[in-house]
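Hi again,

Forgot to attach this to my earlier email, sorry! This is the prediction with MIG bound. I've pasted everything inline since the attachment limit keeps bouncing my files.
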Amino acid sequence: MITNTELEFKGDLYPSKIVEFKKEVDSVYFYTDNSVILKVTVLRDSLLRFRYTTKGYFSKDFSYAIDKTQSHGYNLLELADDIDCYIIQTSKVICKIQKEDLRVSITDLEGNCILEDELGFHWEESYHFGGNIVKMSKASKDGECFYGLGDKASQMNLKGKRVENFATDQYAYHKDQEPLYKVVPFYIGLQNKNSYGIFFDNTFKTTFDFCHERRNVTSFWAEGGEMNYYFIYGPQMQDVVTTYTHLTGKPELPPLWALGYHQCKWSYYPESKVKEVTGKFRELKIPCDAIYLDIDYMEGFRCFTWNKEYFPDPKKMVAELAEDGFKTVVIIDPGIKIDKDYWVYNEALEKDYFCKRADGPYMKGKVWPGECNFPDYTNPEVREWWAGLFKELISDIGVKGVWNDMNEPAVMEVPGKTFPMDVRHDYDGNPCSHRKAHNIYGTQMARATYEGVKQFAYPKRPFIITRSAYSGAQRYTSSWTGDNVASWEHLWIANIQVQRMSISGMGFTGSDIGGFAEQPTGELYARWIQLGVFHPFCRTHSSGDHGDQEPWSFDEEVIDITRKFVELRYQLLPYLYTMFWEYINDGVPMLKPLVYFDQEDTQTHYRTDEFIFGNQILVCPILEPNAQGRRMYLPTGNWYNYWTDELVNGKKELWVQTDFDQIPIFVKEGAIIPKYPVQQYVGELEFEEITLEVYFKLGKEKSVLYEDAQDGYDYNKGRFSLATFSFTGKEKELIIQQHKEGKFVTNYTKFKINLHGLPFKVKKIMIDKEHISFNDASFNLNTLIVDKDFTEIYITGV
Ligand code: MIG
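Structure tokens for the complex follow:
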């Protein structure tokens, strides 16, 4: 008989000495005496993959996170056999593998240590589940900082924290709560001005410890699967993040309306209520592009059905809303009601598409509709079926976007709030238990939803939003930060979460503006809107059980502030869209924490509140009641106060005075910021001209403006317009050159140029080498109208 003590933890096991090695194309294998194999693959000179097995062979390689369409390549891969180690060298890094114990250290070409194993790879055999608990520990030097990891509600710098990755429905979470809805096992280390990244691509529950347990050790481990991580070398954080995003994939461009303002509540019904809300937006002239239907639009919470009492003619309603510029987005949950009169249930049952328990019965759990079964989205056939279910909603009824919720997956009234761990999944032909599939479930649901909406929305672009996600989900969907709370602390959390998501590859994210649970004061709501309009996804949402959260639920002043900031977002749409284009092309995060902006400046390492919106606008929310301004840090460079045009030099802390209808916003000198006229929704107006706000600088600066048809896929065929503006400012001279690419012709014909901070009086203006005559009246307040295709504006002054 086996006694309890025999089942107990036998301790950690370690690789022994290397007895053999082998090089194969882009990979090198190291074999130890005790059957451990380390496979090092060079994907790029600055991107190395480390994969370990303890069995003497590797199991099939499969990942949902890695974007297989992305290409990689390196310049150099050299392998040397030294006395006590093997050395792999690329054109960026040198990686040493100790012969004695398989420990790894990575240096740059000058020999500066970037990352080094402490104990390195080790493992614990799991008798209970089979396989190993796989562990890694790295030495951490004093002063090292840590960033990334998705939606964590903690300080930006994770030094001293331990975080857990297990997708969880965490209603009304609090600061430092672990775990949350999303799983992004990717972090950025910054030490001695060098940045590197680690992506631990393992979907089991993972834990990261950043010098929490031991002061000079960073470790991460998983409760199953392989020790399989990617090392990304910077040295700039920019390079780490863009490489990670390239590895796990980028989205396509969303339709421009998806970057507008969205209004949501649990729930708007019946139809008359929906129309009352949309009508009020138009009446109060607060721009809005999307209205959401939460679970009550369905018949008894059955996905793909409508409550005919509340919504007798959904197609007609959706069309009428569309006429008024509103796109309808509907929620779809994973739980399918067990109901023999429900066609979706019957189809799934007939095709055997629901998840099963280990011994065969279907996984059954209670969610909104009552007892439900749950499709296994990790099965490609199930995903295809699921995608097909969207035909009526999208093609026929005209819904424009789909909102996936509860996909952690969440189950009510059970311990752990999710599936039991024995539930089986197909995992794309790699059958496994829920322990392995849990963290990826939501992503595969969103992926299937995306495929469906995309197919039926064609030739328009799809819009998907999800609550749960794993690395790589950004290829299919946007996301929101789940059930937050109407509190000042949560405003602080929202700011950090969205910045963190941005540098974790998943940039199209926002929070429930105003807070989901509980009731915001007008002041809190206003402060939240002022931040929210600078988040890539911008939606007010609330649980609705505490009163209303439409802008007009608050007083006149708050309504005016909401309008002012939502209008600002609509003006900045071309700038925001250009940010998005840089994200999908180069993996550049749309929001940049200060440490990302200037990692050389150690002052930025612990900053959390200020961030760069795009490349040239700095935003700092007000996070306290009764504020008349705030202290903040302005990073390196010279910045114009957006409200006053005062030029301030950075790399210093300062007090910024703001009224209630302002937050500190600064524009980088030399920037050229494009603005559209205010519209009540994207595409409402055809305009003759757009504005370029030009901020004078002594020196040079580049700005970019990307535009296309704002929907559809023609931009992939070259029908886009990409304008690059080069600004050069001298003591008595200003030159703006424009270089254009792409075949898309914008509707407007003119730029209205507003010059800010001009240090001289204009004497002469030449446009494309032609002299422009002007008097003080036509060149009023430093405004100039030019043809949108100008190539050079040349201004001299006295
Ligand atoms: O158990 O659909 O996070 O945004 O309004 C609550 C109702 C289910 C949770 C989501 C929230 C949504 C709500 N849902």
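The chain has four domains: 4-234, 261-335+380-583, 591-668, 686-796. Residues 751 and 783 are 10 Å apart (CA to CA).

That should be everything now.

G.
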